[in-house]
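DUF2357 domain-containing protein
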Amino acid sequence: MKTMVSLPTGSDKLLEVRTAYVDIVIKTKGKQNAGAVVNGDASSSLKVVASDIKRISVPVQEMSEEYFDHEGMAVHEFKVKPLFFEQTDYVVTIKARNGEALEFFSNSNLIEERICRVLDDDASLLSGVINFGNNVGFCDFNVAANNKTVISIRIEVYPTKVNYKEDYQEMMADINDLISESVLDFMKKTYQVFVPNHKKNEVSAVFFTVLETICSKYLQSVNRIVAVPHHKLVTIHEVVPHYKARRTDSNSEKWLQKHPEYIRKGGTRILAERVLSVRKQITYDTQENRLVKFMLRSTIRHIDDFLKRYIKSTQKPERSILDKAYRIKRELQRILASSFLADVSEYSAAQSMSLVFGMAPGYRELYKYYLMLQNGISVGGDIFRMSVRETAQLYEYWCFIKLYAILKERYELKSPDIIKVDRKGVTVDLVKGKPSKITFVNTQIDERFYLTYNPSEAKTQTVHQRPDNVLELEKRGSKNAYKYVFDAKYRIEMNPDSSFYPDTKPGPKVDDINTMHRYRDSIVYENPDSRFTFEKTMFGAYILFPYAEEEVYKNHRFYRSIESVNIGGLPFLPSATSLVTKLLDDLITDSPESAFERATLPAGMEERIRTVDWNKRDVLIGLVTDSDHLQLFLKSKLYWTRRFDKVNLPIRYVALYEKGSGIRYYGELISYSQRKRSQLPGASKHSSKDYHVFEVLQWHELPEIITMEESGPNPVAYTNYFLLSTAKTYSELRLRNEADYRFFIELKRRTDPRILDEEGSTAFEFGETKVLIESDMIHIIRDGSIVKSENVAEFNKHPNATFRMLQSCMSKLS
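Tokens:
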């Protein structure tokens, strides 16, 4: 007689099962995992299959009715609170009641190897300490006596750092969705010819796991096709009596010429008794529908193959799995037999996939889901696996895929390197230890950047480094590549100890932060053109770790450290992506100057890079009134003007402003003098007015003409060489200092600011917002009122952080 017993509160026993043949006890070893991320109402599955059960002791929440399998063994299914967790030790004891020799086996080799005999000469007592590592999901315990299974227990292992029923399942869904979307995008762009492949999928478990995941969507897309199928109009020729013919064409005339026996003379007329008639008819027998039919038949063959292998591979196939497989098969067979597909011809791969599969509803989705089922698509790293899964590896895959998805949503995808085509078909190539690179374009500023999984950073002077994910940015106006490490770490310091941990709140592990320092400082490349020879390529390194409380974490020391030294940690889960998204956007929209300032520089480097003397306005911009004067200046290597104040000397460069066009030519000044106009080229002999004359070594063309959005100098103006070499418009030449320039560059990467001509200050305007930079303050102005201010000295000291603080205010205003 079976009895149910609830285990006492505080007991170290998690499960106790007693039968007529064997007793099994599973206990916790030490402290049960209290830091696991589990919802209060979470429930876990527990299944016990045995004969002659005497007692089951378990903290039951809900129990199903007892039923019997096809071998007559009793089946009990329970809903219990989560009992088993990853990275936790458990003691398992198994004892035979009648002294029979026992054997233990499991679907996990990691577990099976741990359970063994307590005494070498006594096979009736088995015991061991098991640990699931980072594996979560279902795990089976099976005990056999005399080559016959006497008890089977299926438990559910929970992760400790992510929420199993939410984050974990969403990670799996994100991976599935991205893989299918990437493959479909690739196929649409390359128009690959679809070739039938009858080769059996060697990993049938993979096939059925994917089929289970997408079953409802797969059938939904098929039903949508059946409801609104693709069709085309075809021309039908048939021989009919003349009175039934409604339409004829040139083929009808040719037919009559070959069949004169149907022609007779009737008085003055020539009549045809029978003719070749023409009519238009809708047909569903298209290449696209033939491919649909092939897909459904192929899926049925795969289900049959899976059923055959599954039944053969296990002594007790699960009824729920068999029922689901048979149900899907029956539904596909029904659709094939009762819909228009029954009259569709067989598929042949004579044509490329048409736009119907790229555009038409139903067809597009079916093709995507079918690709996921086929042998031609392999997912490196075993992303799809049945039962127990390695959560640390899954988290690493998910981090890359989620970074990819975030960037793909905001920027233009150029080349997904994770999608490859070879003789095996289309491959989603995401494998631990193998680099995969994806290219994006920020179309707003026309800059490329790259996301790389497992990049090989071998060019170090010490040891080989391989971070998980690297974001590499190209910046206009800079020859350098700016790289940032986003390293996935499935670890978290849940209960920080103040004796060694620098914060009181949960966060990344200290040794993982040290690893980020190593990545940033040890990955260098040899630059023969640099006086320093070896230069760092990593400008920042960040840990991605599984933690959901983003608002709480914003005050964590390892989050604030990103702003100060560009090393730290970021929580990253399906429910927590905002901080990572913000940092990605910040890094991509950074100007080269801001990107450079994120790096921690050696002492004394700041003075070396601040080479621009903003007080010097040593470039003279001179008006050129017409093309004749321009040719005179270019040919003589001179520029002259009557209006010039010697107080503006010394002048190092002269730039020519062509009226109505812009600034194109400039030259380095070699001499200054005053002459009569008669002494200058193209003047009459009687011209005696005095002119200031500037002689240049050589006229050069700027890479891009500096355009004029307003009137130019009349006749001269002044700027510095740095602005002359970087400006795109004339108004940029009036920027007064580094703060003006830095603020303008950051604004320009995000919007289209207009520079206003303000007396003694610089002002930028975009939309309804105005930024006024005075000698000591920066003001954000809206509707004539100051809504935010910041000190210029603070901006010069921390330009990146100060701009982002002001930007948040500007974003709210817009």
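The longest helix spans residues 164-190.
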